[in-house]
From TrEMBL:
This is Electron transfer flavoprotein subunit beta. Keywords: Electron transport, Transport. SUPFAM superfamilies: Adenine nucleotide alpha hydrolases-like. It comes from Acidobacterium capsulatum (strain ATCC 51196 / DSM 11244 / BCRC 80197 / JCM 7670 / NBRC 15755 / NCIMB 13165 / 161). Residues 23-213 form the Electron transfer flavoprotein alpha/beta-subunit N-terminal domain. Belongs to the ETF beta-subunit/FixA family. It comes from the Bacteria.
Length: 256
């Protein structure tokens, strides 16, 4: 069984983000980066399937040279090899453009299973995995809590709303987006870190994948949310005022 896991490098959570001097993106010079947390859970799911079924796990990452740090982390945790699409223009691509590059990079691998995180911590679109599956023309399912391999197919458990779950039987090859928190993430061992140095990292360029260099997305301005204060007086009896307050909290503020 061959499993490809798509991982992304994102700024460290809770970092102090500043707007860049041109006002079109954040200041990246003083940021620290890490593996996207939802992708870390996708990697963990792949490694657990490897432990159970002897699968080959391939880490797939698109990004600049600095993304090599999370690729080495994935290899140290147990991935067998990696594919690095070296590019600095991800910010100019829409979801389809990113998904096409990832899909093109795995076509020659013919994986049985592709795993991604549910969404990225930086953009949070939650679209790349399913669009990648459509580009590859393979079945896909999202918000996966559990995976069981059954011969040439898999049985997955999806999380729905209000505590409901859905169980689906899917043929292989397939793509799954993994829900965060379904396993405890493992740490890289000292032996794993040493072995990672000898594992293969295949480097590709967008040109080798037949990707266009024309920008698909242009960001005009990035800014912090504006803070506003507003006071509303609720008229009527205490009961009427309470009813109005509940209505506003439910439909305007959306906190209940």
């Amino acid at each position: 069984m061959k499993i490809v896991v798509a991982i992304k490098q994102v700024p460290v959570r809770d970092t102090n983000v500043r707007i860049g001097p041109d006002g079109k993106w954040i200041e990246e010079s003083d940021l620290e980066y890490e593996i996207n947390e939802p992708d870390a859970y996708a990697l963990e799911e792949a490694l657990q399937l490897k432990d159970q079924h002897g699968a080959e796990v391939i880490a797939l990452c698109a990004g600049p040279d600095r993304a090599g740090s999370i690729i080495r982390e994935a290899l140290a945790k147990g991935a067998d090899r990696a594919i690095h699409i070296e590019c600095d223009d991800l910010g100019t691509l829409d979801t389809l453009g990113v998904a096409q590059r990832l899909a093109e990079a795995v076509k020659t691998e013919s994986p049985d299973l592709i795993l991604t995180g549910l969404q990225s911590d930086d953009l949070g679109l939650g679209q790349t995995g399913v669009v990648m599956a459509e580009v590859l023309n393979i079945p896909h399912s999202t918000i996966i809590m559990h995976v069981e391999v059954e011969g040439a197919s898999i049985k997955v458990k999806r999380e729905l709303e209000d505590g409901w779950f859905q169980h689906i039987q899917m043929p292989l090859p397939a793509l799954l987006t993994i829900q965060s928190g379904i396993h405890r993430l493992r740490y890289a061992t000292l032996m794993g870190i040493k072995k990672a140095k000898t594992k293969e990292v295949k480097k590709l360029t967008p040109a080798e994948l037949g990707a266009t260099s024309a920008p698909a997305v242009a960001i005009d301005r990035v800014y912090l949310p504006e803070k506003k204060k507003q006071t509303q007086l609720l008229k009527g009896s205490p009961a009427e005022a309470a009813a109005q307050l509940v209505e506003k909290l439910k439909y305007e503020v959306r906190v209940i």
